[in-house]
Amino acid sequence: MPRLRRDHLIDLRPLTTSPAFARLWIGSTLAGLGGQLTIVAVMLHVYELTQDTFAVSMVAVFGLVPMIFAGLYGGMLADAFDRRLVALLAAVVTFASTVLLAVLAWTQQETVAWLYALSAVNSAANSIVMTTRAAIVPRLIPRDLLPAAAALQGITIGIMIMAGPALAGVLVAFAGYAWTYSIDVVLMLSLFLGLWALPSIRPEGEIVRPGLESLKDGWRFLKRAPNIRMQYILDIVAMTFGNPLALFPAAGAVLLGGGSITTGALTAAVAAGAFLSSLFSGPIGRVRHHGIGIQRAIQVYGAATVLFGLVLGAGALGWFAPPTVDATHPNIALIVLACAALAITGAADNVSSIYRSTMMQAAVHDAVRGRLQGIFTVVVAGGPRVGALYAGTLATLTTLWFPPLIGGFIIIGLVGLIVRLNPRFREYDALHPTP
User: Fold this and answer.
1) Which of 64, 185, 371, 377 has the fewest Cβ atoms surrounding its Cβ within 10 A?
2) Where is the Major facilitator superfamily (MFS) profile domain (predicted)?
């Protein structure tokens, strides 16, 4: 029995096998924690200034186009230059935008326009960091440890989102926005330490200079990579119809009560699920058919999204509610149920992410890995932003509980149909990775 328990726990060999990977992982985790403080603080800040859920969703939308271009161009840079240097320069831009947010908050000069603009710059630069860092990882550890490295990334996400939003809610409520942004500035310094200690990592194989030809070369590879294309499509479906993040501030203010603390708790619940699924990710690394794993994980994600919509619907009906529901009188029962549903979405999305990341890093050649990781980063980071627009717009036209309810059903049905029509994806074998 003890051996069985060990086999089910996360594989830590990437940290002990590669000190460079370990330093990068620690630095990225601490910096990511600070980044979550800013993400949640900006959402709360915009909601405080506007009292409008649609305005909150527009934070994500304004950053979408810059993030797409930055992710694609960052991938070209990662395939042409020293990946360590590319990541360091992009991290400088991320750091500068966070510093400016803090300065504006301390001087009380912040406006909705500034919050939109700096969030866009931050997300664009961070997409380059994410793209380049993901292209670096396969050069630091052997291929058989890639699933374990992806699971460790789930631990990172869990720590970031579980602690970050909850801490952000408390900091905003008791210390204010300026202190919240400033703490992110301090934590971001760890990212530089992780990147600075890396060796020089230049791409292998034929190098294509950044530009139109580089983009075409990456596109030609993607056209010959049906499994990679399919995982992009499935993730877009999940994140478009199953990402209710933009609804959290209004849910905390109107339906569930608890205000900013509830907003942080809901976001943290997603991360708690991701953290726990990574902690017990031992069996995931032994699964060979990653396509089937992705399908099942996303459909579980859709079912849990439906459950979250039902909980919000119960809040609209006043179930289990105290006489008054507001920032100081939360509906504890429904908040717990909502957090449970969101924890399941986090766990399912993390399992899908482990399979998708492993497939990307194992099946894609190093010469084009940066560009494909750029597209992967755009999909992973851009999908939730499209989802924020979907949720915010539909909630404005209908009610808060409707977008996750209908979106979850769409995910379950559409993912099942798409995978059924693509048998090659179902048959993907991790022992013989093919893009």
Assistant:
1) 185
2) 183-435
Helix 112-140 vs helix 53-78: angle between axes, to the nearest 10 degrees? 40
Give the C-alpha separation, 71 to 370, whole Å.
10
pLDDT at 373 exceeding the cut of 80:
no
pTM of the entire predicted model? 0.76
Q: How far apart are CA 214 and CA 230, in angstroms?
A: 22
Is residue 5's pLDDT more than 60?
no
In a domain, 203, yes or no: no
CA-based R_g, the chain, Å: 21
Domain with 37 in it: 9-198+209-426
Q: Is residue 431 part of a domain?
A: no
* Gap between the Cα atoms of 425 and 226, Å rounded: 8
- Identify the residue with better confidence: 281 or 274: 274
**What confidence tens digit (pLDDT) does each residue in 144-177 have?**
888 888 888 878 877 776 777 778 878 888 888 8
Tens of pLDDT along 283-296?
A: 776 777 788 889 99
Q: Is residue 267 part of a domain?
A: yes
> Is the distance from CB of 126 to CB of 32 less than 8 angstroms?
no
The number of domains in the chain is 1
Rounded CA separation 42/36 (Å)? 10
- Residue 122 in any domain: the answer is yes
